[in-house]
Amino acid sequence: MTDSMHPSFDTDVLIIGGGPVGLGLAIELGQRGIRCTMSERYVQPQPIPKGQNLTQRTMEHFHFWGAEPELRAARTIPPEYGIGGLTAYGTLLSQHHYDWLQRELVKPYYFKDNERLPQYETEKVLRQRAALLPQVDALYGWDAETIRQDDEGVAVTLRERSSQQIRHIRARYVVGCDGSRSKTREQSGITQTLSDHDRCMVLLVFKSQALHTLLARYPGKSFYNVLHPELKGYWKFFGRVDLGNTWFFHAPVPLGTTADNFDFKAYLHESVGAEFEIEFQHIGFWDLRFALADHYRAGRVFIAGDAAHSHPPYGGYGVNSGFEDARNLGWKLAAVLQGWGDEPLLDSYDAERRPVFASTINDFIAKSIETDKDFLEKFDPQQDRVAFDQAWAQRSQGAVGEVHAFEPHYEGSPVVWHNSAGSRTCSAKGAHIYKARAGHHLAPARLSNGKNVFDMLGAEFSLLALGSAPHDTQVWVEAAAAAGVPLTVVHEPAGHEADRYEARWVLVRPDQFVAWVSDEASIDPTLVQALFKRLRGNSSTEATTAQQVNLP
Ligand SMILES: Cc1cc2nc3c(=O)[nH]c(=O)nc-3n(C[C@H](O)[C@H](O)[C@H](O)COP(=O)(O)OP(=O)(O)OC[C@H]3O[C@@H](n4cnc5c(N)ncnc54)[C@H](O)[C@@H]3O)c2cc1C
Fold first, then answer.
1. Cα–Cα–Cα angle for 88, 359, 439, rounded to 5 degrees
2. Residue nearest to ligand 1 atom 19, measured at CA
3. Per-residue pLDDT at 38 exceeds 90
4. Which residue's CA lies nearest to atom 1 of ligand 1?
5. Which residues contact 230 (CB under 8 A, 6 or more apart)?
6. pLDDT of residue 539
7. pTM to 2 decimals?
8. Beta-sheet strands, E only, within 177-321
9. Rounded to an integer, what distance in angstroms lies between the CA atom of residue 413 and that of residue 426?
10. Does position 7 have pLDDT exceeding 80, yes or no?
11. In the structure, which protein residues have their CB atom closer than 6 angstroms to any atom of ligand 1?
């Protein structure tokens, strides 16, 4: 198997691991015309109902991956039922509860609605989509064993699990999407920082129609988080796998618990606050800990998804962050392999995605465990009902704030250009607003032609020329051509919904993040040239802001 264009390489990118993130990356690369091979250990997706909450942003990825209708059709809970969350105190049926993780609150800032389905269903849809792309060679049932790199490429040994057949593949780049115990990470010498919470968690999957009947009082809810004073901020977490029948539950159990030495039925009854019939389908365990790789890149090897960051599944950040890794790295690898990006562009993957995940841990997941622990220590309805009710009402407002505040952005990125100097960082903490801001996700807007701006964006860079005459964009077209950067220009007159961007020019990256924004009427060609150099990842330009080239 030899790539016809590059005889010394079997493929341009070898992806190790075909879970959701590896599959997403294969599709991203395949659609961009990049030849890739993906090796996945299992022939079939593993039937564990994890990774269920797919955010609006993730559904934008599915739109661009050409798999949105298929994914929505694979949903296991009917659309009319709803996929909201609920937090309760003490037991699931307690009188103290409020709506939780109402992601619909931020829907106006994204092009697509959120979705919910078990991860194995998502993986099936992604496998089917990848199979339609001639650039993607998907190998199921193949385990990656050794990964060795030199200056020009990476050699990987694969073994087929059924036949023990060995295959050697040489790739220009390797991306490890092989989960939290990533061999790619270990063999490429990437260390990780662990924060061990020393908690053993159980994952139960069970059937119970009686629980569906008991929860009829919470219509439209599909996942439930029970706070209990004894658990010090760690949750008892229930979720529907389908409507009316199958459920998952995860919660702390004593260290040393096995499938045989613990009464899981009693634990579930106590957590719900009622007795009900249960038929167990799966009893598994996982360690509650946070792990963040110290680098996402080692030479020609990258890691993405759980291989780069793993954490308790509180708040549904895991698979969604992994998909964003795939989107971020995918266009950069394509740019470098196709020659419209320079090699340093690949370093921006780590520079953007790693701080975002550190912030996801510190500002959201670990923080929520701490906040819940403090609350449970301070307030008890048996002791002071008035104080508890007040604090509980405040928490329900806080839950709204958390959804709005989770807005991952790349303000501090080397592939973003600001109009003034300043100290900026990449973070998961931000705010949802319509105004276009450098480093932030572009909000959708309906254009004068009736289409959404997301339907007009090109696959690479796009310039939104808002209220400008067509000849004003000539300087952009020439500078992009000179820099070799593919550019789509979208003209839109003033007086329509795109006015909410509060800008005349918005330059949008291939992943729908804003690279640069300006309200100036005319743009100097020198600035545009410097800007495109920077967006290619060209380190020879030292200017990092419009101010530094003294323009405009
Ligand atoms: C109980 C539970 C509930 C969760 N709920 C949510 C949720 O609601 N929302 C959310 O966003 N996240 C959730 N998560 C987290 C989410 O499941 C993970 O973030 C997600 O699976 C990460 O995807 P991945 O592709 O990076 O890794 P994985 O899903 O772990 O996929 C890695 C793949 O690599 C393959 N592989 C490993 N080693 C090799 C090798 N050497 N060669 C070939 N193949 C290999 C594996 O077989 C696997 O298919 C949950 C996790 C758990 C445990």
1. 120
2. 318
3. yes
4. 50
5. none
6. 53
7. 0.93
8. 192-207, 221-227, 236-240, 246-253, 279-293, 297-298, 301-303, 309-310
9. 7
10. no
11. 16-22, 39-42, 50-53, 119, 143-144, 177-179, 183, 203, 250, 286, 305-306, 313, 316-320, 322
